[in-house]
Design brief:
130 residues; alpha+beta; 5 helices; elongated
């Protein structure tokens, strides 16, 4: 994967490619298009390639890959990517669900011996307030 080398079966950061990845993420967050962010980072790439790069969670680190960018940077870039996709789409691809902050819970009048059934019953008693 771009940004890493495999040495003795272990992923290590390729410093030169990591600089490009960081530059692409930062350029895109600052408002550049995907292509312009890649060009600004010194490596022209196709739009689809940059989109895949911006979407790779491995860049924030996991069990195999060390982190190249922060979770905050990843979240900002992908939030912008989803926002831009919505702006340029005829049908909305992503709509954030409403956040409900007020609930009422009626008193439980029935008790089930099965915990899953009891939980389902209690959950059914929750009323969302607008």
């Amino acid at each position: 994967m771009y940004g890493y080398k495999i040495i003795n079966g272990k992923a290590v950061i390729d410093e030169a490619e990591a600089v490009v990845i960081i530059g692409i993420f930062n350029g895109y967050i600052s408002g550049l298009s995907m292509n312009a962010a890649a060009e600004n980072a010194g490596v022209p790439m196709a739009h689809s390639t940059v989109k895949k790069l911006l979407s790779r969670t491995a860049y924030i680190g996991d069990d195999y890959y060390p982190a190249i960018i922060s979770r905050e940077t990843f979240a900002k870039a992908n939030g912008r990517r989803l926002h831009r996709a919505n702006l340029h789409s005829h049908e909305k691809r992503y709509t954030a669900p409403p956040i409900h902050k007020t609930f009422d819970l009626a008193g439980a009048e029935t008790h089930y011996n099965d915990p899953a059934q009891q939980a389902e019953y209690i959950y059914s008693l929750i009323e969302v307030k607008p």
